[in-house]
Write a structure and sequence with these properties.
Elements: H1 11-18, E1 28-33, E2 38-43, E3 48-54, E4 61-64, E5 70-75, E6 80-85, E7 90-96, E8 101-106, E9 112-117, E10 122-127, E11 133-138, E12 143-148, E13 154-159, E14 164-169, E15 174-180, E16 185-190, E17 196-201, E18 206-211, E19 217-222, E20 227-233, E21 238-243, E22 248-253, E23 258-264, E24 269-274, E25 280-285, E26 290-295, E27 300-306, E28 314-315, E29 318-319
Parallel strand pairs: 4-28
Antiparallel strand pairs: 1-2, 1-29, 2-3, 4-5, 5-6, 6-7, 8-9, 9-10, 10-11, 12-13, 13-14, 14-15, 16-17, 17-18, 18-19, 20-21, 21-22, 22-23, 24-25, 25-26, 26-27
């Protein structure tokens, strides 16, 4: 399941972007359309698709180079890493990685890419220049979501079938800690200080909050059915979580660890990411083939963008500042 898987611009969003300096290009959202073998490029100023890039192999996972020059995509059907040049929105490389390639992220320098292999229970360490695998790190069963700490010291891995999260030391490329979380963790995210890790647990319908130090569990927050991925907004004060089988996004107050709102989006919401500034949140809806745009202040959907078949966008997909 996990591997194979209107256009009315809101006045609020438009006013925000019109206030930007003319020289500043609006961020773009790159949305993997797994069933459509493509990536949609959304101009977030107008909330319109400006390019559709053919990417064979059922693209699913996505990551952005720190300088925004490249977007990296996993294609589980072909077991490859696809590379998009964001200057011209062209597919410039496809290289074999592993058969179960899904979750993907980069380190903070942009020199290294990390790819989770769902079948082999490893994380591949890929050189971003040569696109060659330098090393593989054994982790738990069916690794999925990946995230690197802001200080570039730790890589966190959600091990879905082990119900755990591993913390990998990026200096030694060895596991430092592994901690049990909820049932079938999938997506995870880290706060801007690198102090808290938030893990979406698909089968237990909750989010586990871990501390960086020894991966101690701080708390658990119940959400709706099949939470999939998460993104922080408003200076880390709010956590937005996609609930696949509920067609909603849960909003969690990170201070009180309480669910404060539930926002209806499209059918089977999966990938989620936040624009710089923390005002607008983009949600990929797999069954509806579109993206919902949420205003993090009003906690309302302000736009819906038609993308491609099977919009998934698992990972970081916003490019630009």
């Amino acid at each position: 399941m996990f591997l194979t898987h209107v256009k009315n611009a809101a006045a609020l969003a438009a006013a925000f972007f019109l206030s930007l300096p003319l020289a500043a290009a609006a961020p773009r959202a790159y949305i993997t359309n797994q069933l459509g073998d493509s990536v949609s490029v959304i101009d977030t100023a107008s909330n319109t698709v400006i390019e559709t890039i053919a990417v064979p192999g059922k693209p699913a996972g996505i990551a952005v180079a720190p300088d925004g020059s490249r977007v990296y995509v996993t294609t589980p059907e072909s077991g490859e890493l696809a590379v998009i040049d964001t200057a011209n929105n062209k597919l410039i490389a496809q290289v074999p990685v592993s058969a179960g390639a899904l979750g993907i992220t980069t380190d903070r320098t942009g020199k290294t890419i990390y790819i989770a292999d769902w079948y082999k229970n490893i994380v591949s360490v890929v050189d971003a220049e040569s696109l060659q695998v330098k090393k593989t790190i054994p982790v738990g069963q069916s690794p999925s979501g990946l995230a690197v700490s802001p200080d570039n010291r730790w890589l966190y891995v959600a091990n879905r079938l082990d119900n755990s999260v591993s913390q990998i030391d990026l200096e030694t490329l060895r596991i430092r800690n592994t901690t049990k979380v909820g049932e079938h963790p999938f997506g995870l995210t880290i706060d801007s200080r690198g102090e808290k890790i938030y893990v979406a647990n698909v089968e237990s319908d909750d989010v586990t909050v871990l501390s960086r130090d020894h991966l101690k569990r701080i708390g658990t927050v119940k959400v709706k059915m099949l939470p999939y991925a998460a993104s922080l907004t408003q200076n880390d004060s709010l956590l937005f979580v996609t609930n696949q089988d509920d067609g909603t996004v849960s909003v969690i107050d990170t201070e009180t660890l309480q669910e404060k709102a539930v926002i209806s989006v499209g059918d089977k919401p999966e990938g989620i990411d936040t624009l710089p500034g923390g005002r607008f949140v983009y949600v990929a809806n797999w069954f509806d083939d579109n993206v919902s745009v949420i205003d993090a202040l009003s906690l309302e959907v302000i736009d819906t963008i038609e993308t491609g078949e099977g919009s998934r966008a698992f990972g970081q997909f916003i490019v630009g500042e």
